Fold each of these.
Amino acid sequence: MLQFLKYVLATFVGIILFLFLSFFILAGIGSMFSSEEKVVLEDKSVLKLDLNQPIQEVGVDNPLSEFGLPFTGEETVVGLKDILDALKSAQNDDKIKGIYLKTEGPEAGWATLEEIRNQLLEFKKSKKFVVTYGETYSEKGYYIASVADKIYLNPAGGIEWNGLSAEYSFFKGTFDKLEIKPLVFRVGEFKSAIEMFSRQDMSEASKKQSTELIGAINNNFLKNISASRSIPVDELKNLADSLAVENPKSALKYKFITNLGYQDELETALRKELKVATDKSISYVGVRKYLDGSSSTEKGDFNKRVAVLVAEGEITSGDGGDQNIGSDKFVKELKEIRENDKIKAVVIRINSPGGSALASDVMWREIQITAKKKPVIASMSDVAASGGYYMAMGCDTIVAQPNTITGSIGIFGLIFNVTDFMNNKLGITFDGVGTSPHADWPTATREMTEFEKATIQKSVNEGYETFTRKAAEGRKMPVEKLKSLAQGRVWSGVEAKQNGLVDVLGGVDDAIKIAAKAAKLGEGDYRVRYYPEKKKPLDEMINKFMGDNEEQATNKALGDLAPYVKMYKKLMNMGGMQTRMPFELVIR
């Protein structure tokens, strides 16, 4: 007994010491952050824009990632807002002489890349240089690189130029083997999100909408590259069809790049451009450090603000988290914005494939209430589809990029019958009692009756009628015309502008200007504030320390299988009716 008490006491003391040391370590790190000296930019500096990392609407600084500790995470998530702010500031900063792009394989959607690309083109009006070097370029990477004055490609590298594609995974065969029966309830011929459970290939309707969608995005892609590189669109198409751009020499031959060379050769050219001695290092500055050291002051009246409320991720009820939009948290944030008299207009920045129909409707209602008090403008990022479009349709004006994925106005419900799987595979059976024939409905542990299935379908139908009616009211078009554009079909921003689902083609800055004008604010007479506010590095580190960083652990443990585990988790979270676009639509 005495030995046991000694072990208990030792364990208790160890825990106390661990907590004590952890407190002082965190306090020390916090002190390090708070006492960090302001960055001083050198003359002849070059802004280094590294896009080979995850890009979200609002970034997450992680300066401790280089230490590799278990609670610090692995990488910094760069914010689109930070990138755009840095480019705007650098354009008029005498100490910044140009930009060095790292854009081999950006981890971002097409609309995000469009925003960055357009701001780079604006930067070039300053007559400062933009150069890029890559060992390889993906098509997304080359889309950004194509604006550069000098495009270097490693002589042993490569460039992807074979057209865009969209691939879907189908799990019907898996469910058949497991004897799990998916019960699907949907409205909309094009609501193809559920086909992954009911089919082994794409339906004709799904192929039609996907072909037209990537075709529209590809046309915008080719048009802009053609303008930047002075290569006719037809020639760009033929080169992709023939796989003629097969190596660095052919990329140079067809004027995709300006130079074959290594990074040291690019830097030699940069030193000459900057008039820097050959034995001196080039003064590169990253986005985060540049913004820390930027001397630009905010302009405009502090009492006249335009709020940009970021809504990024899947839509769920409750508070949500960093990777999704929780309706409760969104409503609370928007209500505070609405009641703040210093905020004169609102931009809802949407980057979401949808999710819970109920949560989408709750947020739509709060947007409607806010729109009665002050202008509310929707700004669509990479995707604002289904539940994402549900949010946008409550706004006064909808702004989208040409390659934004939007629409998908439709609803579905999904329930899995696991009776045979549990019985035949695991030997588990179910039985029970109830006060009425349908007391356990809806259920996954018995075959539902036709009456019960019809009741669910009726609910889905009613949800679709609500969605389309509210969308028609928001777009000020007849319901029948709206329904002809609905049926769960996705559209590019260009197509959505043509058919009336979107009002203006442009980025978040365009939406801010529209919001300011609607609030009768003059140019330079207001300030812009993003909500929720960006997390401080110490706060983010503590969150990672307190949490288990589950997603990173999953990615490390499962590698290529991680996306399928994430898909399983999504299935488990699909309670109630869903307003979602086709799953995991990745265009590359």
Amino acid sequence: MIKLQQFFMRYKKQLLLVNTILLLLAEGSKWLLHMNLPYQALMLIVGIVGVLPIVLTAISSLRVKLISIDVLVSLAVIGAFIIGEFNEAAIVTWLFMLGDVLEELTLKKTRSAVADLTKMAPQTALVVQDDGSTEKKDVDFIDPGEKILVKTGDQVPVDGKVISGSGYLNEASVNGESKLVNKKAGNEVYAGTILENGTLTVETTAVGEDTTFGKIIEIVEEAQDTKSHTEKLINRFSKYYTPAVLIVAIVVGLITKDLRLAVTVMVLGCPGALVIGVPVSTVAGIGNGAKNGIMFKGSQVMDQTHRIDEIAFDKTGTLTIGHPEVSAIEVLNGSKDEIIKLAAQIERQSNHPLAQAIAKLNKEKPASIKVETVKGKGIIATLNNQKYYLGNQKFIVENTRANAKLGKTIDHLSQLGNSIVTFTNEDQSQLAVFGIKDQLRPEANDALTHLKELGVKKIVMLSGDNQETAERIATKLPIDEVHGQMLPQDKAAFVKKERAKGHHIAFIGDGINDSPALANANVAIAVGSGADVAIDVSDIVLVKNDLRKIAYALGLSKKTILNMSENIVMALLTVLLLFIGLFAGYVEMASGMFIHEFSILIVILNGMRLIKFQQN
């Protein structure tokens, strides 16, 4: 039986297609050719093919003492066969199969990105030997306390503490922050981060699954397994509905001794509109979202989304653009236009993120410039026998002279959350300070304000950046709480804590480091430009990277769930009226079937209204 169930599961779409074709042929033979025998034969075949997987599922549910809708449908279809109503059996099974396929299509997810994340974990490390030489070693065989050499461009293979050397690390895979972090002796480093500049010797504190990066993978996989057992929304109703209809049918049969009447009760009570109503609403709602740049991963996502009362945002790449840009230019001496042109041409020679931010200010092709990079400090450029310096304050002072006004300007821009690059020539006749920082998304304020208007009670920002910088960003937005210096496991712990308090929380992020929090939220929302793993574990993807779409998703979810409820009520009301009409003598099998099919059309049309939904 298990193999047969697996066969039907594997080929359910193909079986639906075959049954659809047979139904069309049956209707054609009846209405166009006026041939009743082929009509009945084709309907019998459709009914048998359609009922087999339903019966197998019903048997499985009965084994665990669950009277599901599959049980009612199976009995109703078998009863329809017994009294010769092959067309009703065929239509009921076809509708049931269609609803099942539609639901499966909307719930389908892939775990490929989680596998890709695992592959990103460092595999080998250069272990420093007692004689100072290095040996490449598998990370699984490295013990805490061993010393690891990390060179420019290498991935840090372990969690540890820097014991010698210095350099700039890209920690986006761990804390999501776009700016490079200067690491020196005494600082902690994390596996999976990349050394962009410099050389480090690291004393190992954790390896493999015990590293911060390893825990990211573990948390994501555990949370995904937890979410994979979500039941269909319709099962909430079948728990009580199915036994009730069966009891009514049995009682009617025992009292009246009329098998046809008892079967009619089951046939008319068979929830065709109930079965198709939820998937139609789901597909229409998801289709509307897709057209508007919002990808929902199933009906259960909408059910969760419409309950949201708290939203937690990652900062970098979510509330902000995700890469540094020049936010301020303070010219102390010289022509601003000339300084911008020269600085951009010089910085175009460097791949450093701060240099690239300045390089974007001028698109002219660079002149012939001789450039010398001083690691960790800046650039010395020679153009037309004139030397120019771009770098930090210490670098400028070392190569030119101290300047009190320069120091005040740098302090002011630093307090505003900027990373600083100073430009000058040898005599400081050209002197300017560039303030560079990640910028808020232009729609961020409107988006968060709209969420408040929709009833979201609490908006939180979680950031890997320091608390002061995070709070400075938050002052420009309607945010209730700010938490800085958070590692991936800290974000995930915060989400779990809020859920434990009874909040229905959504988390919005874009990076690998956000995936644990995303995986543990009631609703996980990823921006489309984010890492594959963030998108993979998310419930909703904002394809167009527009934060205003979060409010649209919330509104659409509420409307879709309302539409589902309307369809369920209409389906149940139709069954109730049919029963009243049946027992009052006003409804026969034929007229009941007509009303039954008409109710299905009504719920389909009602569900299709969602296609035209627009946010106010």
